[in-house]
Design goal:
InterPro entries: Abi_system_AbiD/AbiF-like. By secondary structure, the protein is mainly alpha-helical. Helices cover 48% and strands 2% of the residues. The radius of gyration is 20 Å and the shape is globular. Residues 1-13 have low confidence and may be disordered.
């Protein structure tokens, strides 16, 4: 028996800002799910048993990072804010448009570009990527040392990844491992320095590298 193609209801969703954003995202996700059902048993199972209705926590296994970033960006502001606060994103008070959800959407967009560069084995260490608005992140210790008013260095991306990892997986050793890598493998190279990646002076004393930030 052939399994049906995966589809969501196409009615306008109150979860997304616009029906257009919703439908565009669903079109992309539908293609990924239908392609994955042949190679991923857990996706095929939902086609066979549940008519292709796949819970989001299962669906994310076959989505690109960009798909997840776009889904988050398209959410209603209140929903974005709730998720952002859950991962320790706090907006700087008194700044127009500094909702926590907007800050997290910016970080996810930045990390999507970084992920794509890394996935294609391209040069990343001293590149410029999607700018992160730093003035609005001033309330969080994780982002101390970034350039103002925006930072497009890899160091800013590292701060974003480090903050989110510590929020999602408390006790993560990622920042310590990266610190060891930078100090032990990059800085000893003649003519090279962490400053080329955007690392500020005395970066090892900043909260992200010296202790808990969440």
């Amino acid at each position: 028996m052939r399994s049906a193609a995966w589809q969501f209801p196409i009615a306008t969703s109150p979860v997304f800002l616009t029906s257009g954003q919703h439908l565009d995202w669903l079109s992309t996700v539908s293609k990924r799910a239908n392609r994955a059902k042949k190679r991923d048993p857990f996706i095929g199972h939902h086609f066979q048993r549940y008519h292709g209705q796949i819970p989001i926590w299962v669906l994310t296994e076959v989505l690109d990072f960009a798909d997840v970033s776009k889904a988050y960006k398209g959410l209603q502001p209140a929903d974005r804010d709730e998720i952002a606060r859950a991962v320790g994103i706090i907006s700087a008070l008194g700044r127009k448009g500094a909702r926590p959800g907007e800050l997290l959407a910016n970080l996810l967009e930045n990390l999507t570009v970084v992920r794509n560069i890394a996935a294609h084995h391209s040069r990343l260490w001293n590149r410029r990527v999607v700018p992160i608005g730093t003035g609005r992140l001033a309330a969080m210790d994780s982002f101390r040392g970034l350039k103002a008013p925006q930072d497009e260095t890899v160091y800013a991306s590292i701060c974003a990844a480090g903050h989110l990892l510590q929020a999602i997986s408390p006790g993560s050793a990622w920042t310590k491992q990266l610190s060891t890598l930078v100090r032990g493998r990059l800085e000893p190279i003649g003519g090279r320095s962490a400053a080329e990646m955007g690392f500020p002076d005395e970066w090892q004393t900043l909260p992200l590298w010296s202790g808990p930030t969440i």
